[in-house]
Amino acid sequence: MAKKDNQHKKDLAKSKEPTLEIGYIRPVKIENEMQESYLDYAMSVIISRALPDVRDGLKPVHRRILFAMHNLGLRHNAKYRKSATVVGEVLGKYHPHGDIAVYDSMVRMSQDFAQRYPLIDGQGNFGSIDGDPAAAMRYTEARMSALAEELLVDIEKETVDFMDNYDGSQKEPKVLPAKLPNLLINGTLGIAVGMATNIPPHNLGEVIDATCHLIDHTKATVEDLLEFVKGPDFPTAGVIYNFEEIKNAYATGRGHILMRGIASIEENKKGFKIIISELPFQVNKASLVEKIADLVKNKKIVGVSDLRDESDKEGMRIVVDLKRDAYPQKILNQLYKNTAMQQTFYVNMLSLVNGIEPRVLTLKMMLSEYIKHRQDVVTRRTKFELNQAENRAHILRGLKKALENLDAVIKTIKQSKDKEAAHINLRKKFKFTDIQAQAILEMRLQQLAALERKKIIDELKEKLALIKELKSILASPSKVLKIIKNELLEMKNKYHSERKTKVHKGKIGEFSEEDLIPNEEVIITITEGNYIKRISISTYRTQQRGGKGIIGVVPREEDIVEHLFTSMSHDDVLFFTNFGRVFQLKVHEIPVGSRVSKGQAIVNLLNLNPEEKVTAVINLSDRQKHSYLIMGTKQGMIKKTALTQFANIRKSGLIAIKIKKGDELKWVQSVDNGDEIMMISESGQSIRFIEKNIRPLGRGTIGVRGIKLRRGDNVVAMVIINKNLLVGKKVKKDVDLLVVAENGYGKKTNINNYNRQNRGGVGIKTAQVTNKTGKVIDAKVLTSETNGLIMVSQGGQVIRLPIKGISRLGRATQGVILMRLSKGDKVTSLTLAENEKSK
Questions:
Q1: Mean pLDDT across the stretch 756-780?
Q2: Active site residue: 139, 250, 495, 628, which one?
Q3: Which of 211, 252, 395, 780 is the least crowded, having the fewest Cβ atoms under 10 Å away?
Q4: Is residue 486 one of the residues assigned to a domain?
Q5: Percentage above 90 pLDDT, the chain
Q6: Which pLDDT score is estimated for 560?
Q7: Same domain, yes or no, for 28 and 138?
Q8: What is the model's pLDDT at position 127?
Q9: Which comes out higher in pLDDT, residue 778 or 537?
Q10: How high is the pLDDT of residue 279?
Q11: What is the pTM of this model?
């Protein structure tokens, strides 16, 4: 027995193609078998399941669903049919997989938050953005959307190849004609073996414009196409950032795009709240709300009092109520940083080329492959229509010939024994073809009427013209491209909608608070008790001179507004204290307050010592615009220091100027070479001198005398006259000095009335100070750019009035009433508004 087995093995070894017997086991290397089997499986997954075809943008399951619905007659204007009917049709004829896989694909094709342009019109519960599953297929109904029908137009005209289904009983298309570039407008997500695809959705109008541009300009670059395609257009809207990264993704086929949701800060009587109205693509709303709740519970986000989802049919609305002492912008920034409100979309534009080759494609390559596909479809459709037209023209020629010999044809038919004989006799006698003879025999008697005969002749002419046109199309590739372009433009007119996702071209990289905060004009107020707040300038409407104004802050414990100025949200602000120290903040880091609120204690923002308070504030929108800072004290000392010495201010602050005992730093202004300086005292004295009279000093110095004060007098204002306003030693005619006294009196005086002097003198009179006017409290330089004045009183009244309503008077005058005050009330501070349109 053993000898017999050995002989059998020798015979097999000698044979080149051994014949295996039943029960015989052939040894193979396991690594070879695993490799072959794995490759077979991988290619099956790649081609037949996971990756979309670049031509129609569909995976096999999606294509089969649409083709099955097409065969069932489920057009966009037809009656809905049970989803189970569609699933059964797909499973029974085309897709040998589970019903859940087919139904889940149907569900996603119908979700307007998953697809930019849904391909299925669903009726019933098809899931939600909260992650709720769809109802069972026996409960839901569906039909194709109008746009999905465009993917199947002309499929019956032999425009695409068909193949056998899984059991050979049916035919199914290898690809759809796709009148629209579906891969780009709807995008796709797929995980194959060893590769994956993640293509974002886009705006239909933009993609069509880019395709048409590429048809007209075949050498166009990706950068040229990005003039039309601004970036992904997600169904959930939101905003995307960094156009350079977007461009890189489209130029290489791979990249990442930063997405953020949209949120706004609103104020009501109870305080502030954050309203989330848009989410990044593929973010689950319920999971987001749960994540925010966990962050609040674990105290990673502090200041949230309530959280609720108020979304309805009108749109998304997640409300985050904040506590009164919370910083709305900071909490919003924390939401972006710690939740799915900020996500990255990883672009991988992998798809099947020619139905078999997986390739990573650039934007141009994708559109080029689509145009090639449409060229093939239009060419095949034209050939089909040409064949149909030629067949019809052939029949019409026979009918025309028969009508021209009508009596002879009728006689031949009458003399024939039967239908078959008549057919043969017509062919022999009149040289008709089989098709023509058959058409003549089937012709009705009513077609012998004169009008009916004319219709045949007219139709023949029409067909001959059509044949000529179709042949010219086939002979001219440019005509084929023109047809493609015209059809695309027709689709744009039919289905175009406005872009949902906003594109922010700036780069943000690491999380930046400024990217989330609009750069708008705001008012900053600091009270004598060192409480600070910011509020939108639109809160205060312009009034006429002499009005009472509106409540701008509710004073507490005699706390009055001491500093009030306008700034932009993104500006840098330098805070100088009475001790001569300086700190720095961004405007948007200052907490928002309501019109009547006192604000937040500034010690929560700056590292101040006991009894130290902010006495001077300036904002620097652009450090390059200024050379020096001028600092003035209450007792008339002045100092000039290079702005570069304030470039790096640590959180604990820096020494800006040394202060004598009993003196305080009160004013800081930015100046350049050639500017002039004026100092004004509360008793109405003023001095004007040129900046060059002050030599630059380091931060840790005491400065020099600016104005010599009489006993009991103090400086109340230090203003800068910009060199651009000077013509020699004179200033332009429209430049005035505004002087305001504590009892609401004020006036403007042309600065040419003040002669330039050397620093350190007693100066000249700038206002007549009386018991009626009260002491001077502040002064400002007015130019043609200055339109508005905002004044705040000790009692919390605020008035906003136009500069043009203030009288221009001489130096030694009392002025006119600018603000009528209640008994015992006094004006404490004022600020100017630049380039403001009066309301």
A1: 91
A2: 139
A3: 252
A4: no
A5: 51
A6: 61
A7: no
A8: 95
A9: 778
A10: 95
A11: 0.64
Decide: residue 816, CB within 10 A, 0-12 exposed, 13-18 middle, 19+ buried: middle
Q: Verify whether residue 41 is a known catalytic residue.
A: no
For residue 677, the model assigns a pLDDT of 93
Is 83 contained in some domain? yes
**Burial readout 198-212 (b: 16 or more C-beta within 10 A, e: otherwise):** bbbbbbbbbbbbbbb
Long-range Cβ contacts of 554-559 (<8 Å, 24+ apart): 554/596, 554/597, 554/598, 554/796, 555/527, 555/598, 555/794, 555/795, 555/796, 556/598, 557/529, 559/527, 559/528, 559/529, 559/531, 559/598
User: Total domain count for the chain?
Assistant: 4
Tell me the pLDDT tens digit for each residue of 683-697: 999 999 998 889 999
In a domain? residue 768: yes
The residues near 267 (Cβ < 8 Å, ≥ 6 apart) are: 273, 592, 594
C-alpha–C-alpha distance, residues 136 and 482, integer Å: 46
> What is the C-alpha separation between 707 and 688, in angstroms, rounded?
9
Q: Where among 119, 154, 179 does a domain terminate?
A: 179
Q: What is the pLDDT of residues 156-194, one digit of tens each?
A: 999 999 999 999 999 999 999 999 999 999 999 998 888
CB 363 within 8 Å of CB 371: no
Domain span at residue 18 reads 2-38
CATH number, residue 144: 3.90.199.10
Specify the pairing of strand 239-241 against strand 502-504: parallel
The conformation of residue 26, written as its DSSP 8-state character, comes to -
Q: Do 269 and 124 have their domain in common? A: no
| pLDDT for the residue numbered 538 | 66
Last residue within a domain, chosen from 282, 317, 340: 340
Same domain, 565 and 681: yes
Please give the pLDDT value at position 39: 74
| 269 is a domain residue | yes
Task: Give the C-alpha separation, 328 to 273, whole Å.
Answer: 7
Spell out a b/e string for 608-629, using b for 16 or more CB atoms within 10 Å of the CB, else e: beeebbbbbbbbbeeeeebbbb
Question: 71-75, 617-621, 792-796: which has the minimum mean pLDDT?
Answer: 617-621
Q: Give yes or no for a contact between 272 and 149, defined as CB atoms under 8 angstroms apart.
A: no
CATH no. for residue 273? 3.30.1360.40
The reply to whether 748 and 672 lie within a common domain is yes
Q: What's the confidence (pLDDT) of residue 167?
A: 92
Task: Tell me: do 642 and 575 sit in the same domain.
Answer: yes
Residues 172 and 280 in one domain: no
Q: Which residues are bridge partners to 464 per DSSP?
A: none
Question: Residues 6 or more apart from 736 whose CB is under 8 A from it?
Answer: 748, 749, 750, 751, 781, 782, 808
How many angstroms separate the CA atoms of 743 and 512, rounded? 45
Locate the DSSP E strands across 94-140. Answer: 120-123
Q: Is the dihedral of CA 104, 105, 107, 108 positive or negative?
A: positive
Element (H, E) at 460: helix 450-475
Rounded Cα–Cα distance for residues 74 and 109 (Å): 15
**Highest-scoring range by mean pLDDT, 36-40, 339-343, 553-557, 561-565:** 339-343
Regarding whether 11 and 97 lie in a shared domain, the answer is no
Contact 145, 119 (CB under 8 A): yes
On whether both 30 and 129 belong to a single domain, the answer is: no
554-558, 673-677, 793-797: range with lowest mean pLDDT: 554-558
